[in-house]
Amino acid sequence: MKTVRIVLSSIGFVTTIAMALIAANVVLHATNHGRNGEALLELTKLEIATDSYEVRYGERFPLGGRDRIQSHFQKIAPWMRNPVDLLESEGRSVDTLDQSEMLVLFLGEDMKRVFDDMKPEFSFPNDQLIDRDNDGWKEYISPDGSLYTMDGGCVVLRNMATGELTKLPGQSNE
Fold first, then answer.
1. Residue 168 neighbours by CB under 8 Å, 6+ apart
2. What pairs with residue 154 in β-bridges?
3. Across residues 143-170, what is the average pLDDT?
4. What sign does the CA torsion over 110, 115, 121, 123 have?
5. Side-by-side strand order, sheet with 129-130
């Protein structure tokens, strides 16, 4: 058991160092790219929050499907009877969640409603949370109206007018 804790601590330490190096690279990159630099910094923070969630719970949050969401909750909180019902108690359905809404759900304050002791991984500014499709789930937008979402397991920024994706340096273009 002690060996497992040491290995997990080592993995967490290495992950933290790696993310710090990535963040330093992004800060340098952002400084040279002006307005787009703010978006890169925010993408870095969201990617770090996503990685932190994965380290804490042993897997990234699911990106769709009622069964996947329920299975994920059973893994991270097996004592809860039906957290999906709790999430849906306000008339929202997990069946309508898209990837941008899941980013807000799993990293933000909604998780505190499901698990009292759960600490949000990211503090979303309320004035940048909107419900574009009126399904009761919020999305996180940048000041210019672009949408933070997931693409291929990475956090990206989607320009809603052009569909263009902004990714962190080093992320795959696939």
1. 22, 26, 40, 43, 44, 47, 154, 155
2. 151
3. 89
4. positive
5. 129-130, 139-141, 147-151, 154-158, 165-166
Q: pTM of the full predicted structure?
A: 0.76
Looking at residue 47, its pLDDT comes to 93
Answer whether residue 119 shows pLDDT above 90: no
Measured CA distances, 48 to 1, 15, 141, 143 (Å): 28, 9, 18, 20
Task: Dump pLDDT digits (tens) for 17-50.
Answer: 555 555 545 444 444 445 577 888 999 999 999 9
For the chain, the structural domain boundaries read: 2-166
How much is the CA Rg of the chain, to the nearest whole Å?
17
What is the enclosing helix (H) or strand (E) of 56? Answer: helix 34-57
